[in-house]
Amino acid sequence: MSLPGAPDVAYRGDTLHLEGAALSELAGRFGTPLYVYSCAAMARALGGYQRALAGRDHLLCYAMKANSSLAVLQWFERRGCGFDIVSGGELERALAAGAGAGRIVFSGVGKTRSEMARALLAGVFCFNVESLGELEVLSTIATASGRVARVSLRVNPDVDAKTHPYISTGLRGNKFGIAHSSALAAFRRAARLPGIEVVGIDCHIGSQIAATEPYLEALERLLDLVEAVEAEGIWLSHVDVGGGLGITYAEETPPAAEELVARLLERIDARGHGHRRLLLEPGRSLVGNAGVLVSEVLYVKPGETKNFCIVDAAMNDLMRPAMYDAWMRIVECERGRGEPLVCDVVGPICESGDWLGRGRALAVAPGDYIAVLSAGAYAMSMASNYNTRGRAAEVMVDGDNAWLIRDRETPADLMRGEHLLPPA
Ligand code: LLP
Fold this sequence. Notes:
The model has no long low-confidence stretch (mean pLDDT 96). The strands form 3 sheets. Strands 5, 15, 16, 17, 18, 19, 20, 21 and 22 form a 9-stranded mixed β-sheet that branches. The protein has an 8-stranded parallel β-barrel with strand order 6-7-8-9-10-12-13-14, surrounded by 6 helices. Helices cover 29% and strands 26% of the residues. By secondary structure, the protein is of the alpha/beta class. The termini are far apart. The chain has helices at 23-30, 39-53, 70-78, 88-96, 113-122, 132-144, 180-192, 213-230, 257-270, 284-287, 320-324, 411-415; strands spanning 2-3, 6-12, 15-18, 21-22, 34-38, 58-63, 82-85, 104-106, 126-129, 149-156, 178-179, 196-202, 238-240, 277-280, 291-302, 307-311, 330-332, 341-346, 355-362, 369-372, 393-398, 401-406. The longest helix has 18 residues, at 213-230. The protein is built from 12 helices and 22 strands. Bound molecules: ligand LLP. Ligand LLP binds next to helix 10 and helix 11.
């Protein structure tokens, strides 16, 4: 039986498997903490988008901030995806994974001059510009290098995505995008600037969105603008509705990608915009449920008010619980080991905020392994080296095959690039 939100994770007998791979066996072979990703899960997630977009002019740009490991990028690149990037570092990663620059959109509210210059040189498909200031700088850089920057303006549609405040991005008070009310003037300005070619319009209203309505609302507001902009003779060849579709961590029931895209296309067609290219920037919904974080139980410590299960993964490996109070399912890699104990699952880091789960019933003893599910997105990509902890190793499984796609970081890796002071 597979587990909620993670159809490729299931017990075979008492042993937890991701596809054909026994997670405790992988943990023994590669060590812990260990991230493991399932190709079948990524294929299922991508398939939903691709089926709904088949036959339409589209570009699916995987938002690589969700998981930017090279092998993951390569996997999406081989299946025809483009990439949504937000930094010069992500650009280099995407190119290193074999991505064609012509399928890359460059998002982000604070692009630097050198990032713009590098992206222009690489020939990215489009810059998603978020302010007039950025537009002016991009124009200067493009002109100086004799290149033309294709530009989409990111509009803040002022729509409530009804998600966690830290990951809600399309509200008036957020730092993102150009206010809907000033967008028309911004398009006029963009159309007159040298070195700029206006090609599209975009928005992104938030992340872990569980409903279709906020998307439809944002789309309507974008299409209103498209019509106003084109009435002034500025032609927009694409509409980019961003990413943000949620996944099931606990009881959430987000729409399937196929359903969401079908609803969007229906609205686009109904308003006579069916000829326009549609761009999407999904991150979490492509990889979130494909990953698990496997960790070894170090100690089970009964407390005065609660019990603690101390594991070798910590907030530096998986920041979401500490940062967003996120609930992520935690299960035993081998079940049937006696009576469960209700405990907080915590890491070795010297902070009370270092927890992975609270009040969980687990039947484990030191040396056993646990798995945090739905850890494919915003997990490894947000990992840090706090407490001088090397980042975890990563493995990708496909059926019965398992490949190591990233070595565990060593102390030497962590100290590389640092310099001692001159002799005293
Ligand atoms: N496009 C833009 C411009 C974005 O800012 C984002 C995410 C995406 C696409 C992809 O959104 P997705 O489909 O993954 O929801 N660290 C947080 C999530 C931050 C999302 C930031 N922007 C978390 O762990 O929940």
